[in-house]
Amino acid sequence: CHMTTATIGGIPRTELDSPFLAIAGGAVVAWASVDRRALARTVAASALAIHRAAFTLPRSYALWLVFDPLDLAVFTGLPVVVAGLWALRRTIRRTFAPGPLAALDRFRLGVFGGVALLVLMGVVRGEVGRILIPLMPFVLVGSMAEGGSEPAADEALSLGVLLAALTLAIDAYWVV
Fold first, then answer.
1. What pLDDT does residue 68 have?
2. H or E element, residue 145
3. SS3 helix, strand, coil % of the chain, rounded to 5?
4. 11 Ramachandran zone, left/alpha/beta (phi>0; psi -120 to 50)
5. Which terminal Cβ of the chain has fewer Cβ within 10 Å, N or C?
């Protein structure tokens, strides 16, 4: 019985097995010994540094102050933002009226004040899609919800379910 040896490029396959297995085994050992979280942090830090140097720093702070709210309006929707500014105007008026401020008004001041603070601090600087997207459900509620008192339990539950659904949809479909 005559056995033929397979060749690769004229080299018998058996002579290639040992180096191949040694390289593959070394790669597996190296992969297992690397702290992938530290590697991911290093890669992410490098990518953010490149992004900051190439995109964030060359643009002026004043430019961000104009375009961050514009990006927020585009991403959230112009009708929502217009309704939100109108509702915020009413809330600011009620803030100076005698008596306690309703829960929705306090919520609205917190949401719009927090977004404004993030923009004014320069934290967002063109990263509206990455930083402010998770806040957009709150902007939506602050813009569209109406009422002078705290919501009933069924209203609060349905609003919470809708917010959770919106947040999950954003998480599932938003690719940054």
1. 85
2. none
3. 75, 0, 20
4. beta
5. N
What integer pLDDT is reported at residue 14 of this predicted model?
Answer: 58
Task: Say if residues 163 and 111 touch (Cβ distance below 8 Å).
Answer: no
Token duo for residue 21: 């297995």
DSSP state letters, 85-144: HHHHHHHHHHHTSSSPPPHHHHHHHHHHHHHHHHHHHTSSTT-IIIIIGGGHHHHHHHHH
Q: Could you tell me the end-to-end alpha-carbon distance of the chain, in angstroms, rounded to an integer? A: 63
pLDDT value of position 117: 92
d(CA 84, CA 145): 9
Q: Which of 60, 42, 61, 62 is nearest to 50 (CA)?
A: 42
What count of residues does the chain have? 176
pLDDT less than 70: residues of the chain:
1-18, 51, 55-59, 129, 147-151, 174-176
Looking at residue 174, its pLDDT comes to: 67
What is the gyration radius of the CA atoms in the chain, in angstroms? 28
Residue 73, number of CB atoms within 10 A of its CB:
17
Tell me, what's the pLDDT at 17?
62
What one-character DSSP code corresponds to residue 146?
Answer: -
CA–CA dist 41, 135 (Å, integer)? 25
